[in-house]
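TASK: fixed-backbone design
INPUT:
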């Protein structure tokens, strides 16, 4: 793949856009749960495509993992795949956070519910700031008990060149959970995002 890198100014601009979008997602989650949600400032990293599957396989080697994958696409060639990855102990606690009784709904429904709040709210908040609109594919839930995480990352529905990894840490009242959000973005879409960032920077 061609080397793709963000300038320092582009990276700072993207970080600020992500901070605002994550703040909106956190606020929506707090309203949905009717409780206080504390969100640490997300940390972003750009990761080469060939290194991501093995990297996450190593990171989660000792943990059961559940993953929710959802494609998104918008105007001006903005598209990608959003992943939310939960460790099993965090995924099991989601039912408690959502107020579900045991056996009320499946783990798939639980993960889909909370991922819908976090992923679509975040992406819509990001799209609004760059004056874009996004559409979404149906979410897919993958359990590490059924499909290896590394295998799923290799089998996504499009060829991507770069991953934007966003580390998220939420604390919800007396219960905390962590998840990794990853945006898998094709090289051409990264270049389109760079153009948007440059446009925003030129307006200031």
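OUTPUT:
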């Amino acid at each position: 793949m061609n080397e793709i890198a963000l300038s320092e100014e582009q990276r700072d601009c993207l970080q600020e856009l992500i901070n605002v979008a994550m703040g909106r997602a956190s606020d929506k989650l707090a309203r949905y749960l009717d409780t206080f949600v504390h969100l640490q400032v997300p940390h972003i990293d750009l990761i080469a495509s060939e290194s991501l599957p093995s990297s996450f396989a190593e990171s989660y080697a000792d943990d059961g993992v559940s993953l929710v994958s959802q494609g998104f696409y918008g105007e001006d060639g903005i598209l990608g795949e959003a992943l939310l990855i939960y460790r099993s102990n965090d995924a099991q606690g989601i039912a408690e956070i959502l107020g579900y009784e045991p056996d009320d709904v499946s783990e798939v429904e639980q993960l889909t519910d909370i991922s819908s709040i976090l992923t679509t709210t975040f992406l819509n908040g990001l799209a609004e700031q760059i004056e874009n609109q996004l559409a979404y594919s149906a979410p897919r839930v993958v359990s590490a008990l059924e499909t290896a995480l590394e295998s799923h990352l290799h089998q996504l529905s499009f060829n991507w060149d770069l991953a934007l990894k966003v580390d998220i840490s939420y604390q919800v009242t007396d219960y905390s959970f962590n998840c990794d959000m990853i945006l898998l973005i094709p090289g051409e879409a990264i270049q389109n995002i760079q153009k948007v960032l440059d446009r925003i920077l030129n307006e200031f």
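COMMENT: The beta strands are 37-39, 43-48, 65-74, 79-87, 134-136, 140-143, 162-172, 175-185.
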